[in-house]
Amino acid sequence: MYLDKFKLTGKIAVVTGAARGIGLAAVEALAEAGATVVLTDMNPELLSAATEGLKAKGLPVDSAVLDVTDAKAVEAAHDAILARHGRVDVLVNNAGIAISNHPAETMADEVWNKVIDVNLNGVFWCCRAFGSTMLRQGGGAIVNVGSMSGFIVNRPQEQANYNASKAAVHHLTRSLAAEWGARGVRVNAVAPTYIDTEMNRYVYENEEMYRHWVGGTPMNRLGRTDEVASVILFLASDASSLMTGSIVLADGGYICW
Ligand code: NAI
């Protein structure tokens, strides 16, 4: 009975930024649990390679090119997915970028705006479009990918844009949870530590970074994408049916220190 709560049999899930990294791992987790998953990403080549790879494994997936910063494109993708699949039960807002090592006093307008546009505005456009459908259906689960950077300020890299965007995602999560809680739509977030993805591997060659990132983590290592995907699956499934507005840290203990 308890294991059944993690199942997503017959559900339709949508994941943004799904072509690689945490998003791709989330797709695998949701699909293994029984959902049909629509991968969306702004990069058509990566998206098609990821989708074909999952199909080859026999997982039930579909895909749509989508840049989450384009509110009209989000509405159009939502309409197309709804027309094709009939409903949407799970939305994972994973698309996000970091533009780091920009001290605040000299950060260019576009460096600030770009990160806020993808990480915050993109999450809102997707919540608005897919959340409306979930409200009409009378149920659904949204999982936003926040970050421990919404709780702490990372060291040594300066990234006020990223940190502010993720703190905003956490409070957007709580705001929507409060508005939609009585109507069956749950909204939660996962807040990961540094994850061992392509973009972070340079840490192994940078002594100062390594000292701060890994040495500053009680578990003394980076996280893996599957370790974030498990939390996403939990928050997307009925196993977390009493949870809404929660920001679940998966940080190897980083914020303990
Ligand atoms: P990644 O860079 O490996 O993958 C991100 C994916 O999002 C790529 O496929 C990219 O094409 C897509 N994407 C970027 N901008 C987009 C847009 N405007 N519209 C649609 N798709 C877009 O990133 P990673 O590491 O897997 O991160 C995923 C999420 O997890 C992000 O929100 C990130 O902020 C968050 N996160 C990552 C951590 C890490 O250490 N890697 C730690 C904490 C949070």
Short structural summary:
The chain is α/β, with parallel strands linked by helices. It is built from seven helices and seven strands, in the order βαβαβαβαβαβααβ.
What do you see in this structure?
The protein has helices spanning 21-32, 44-56, 71-85, 109-137, 160-180, 207-213, 225-236; strands spanning 12-15, 36-41, 61-65, 90-93, 140-145, 185-192, 247-250. With 257 residues, the protein is α/β, with parallel strands linked by helices. It has a seven-stranded parallel sheet, sandwiched between helices. The chain is globular and about 50 Å long. The mean pLDDT is 98. The chain binds 1,4-dihydronicotinamide adenine dinucleotide. 1,4-dihydronicotinamide adenine dinucleotide (NAI) is lined by residues 16-17, 19-23, 41-43, 46, 66-69, 94-97, 118, 122, 145, 147, 192, 194-195, 197-200. The site of 1,4-dihydronicotinamide adenine dinucleotide has 30 residues, from helix 1 and helix 4.
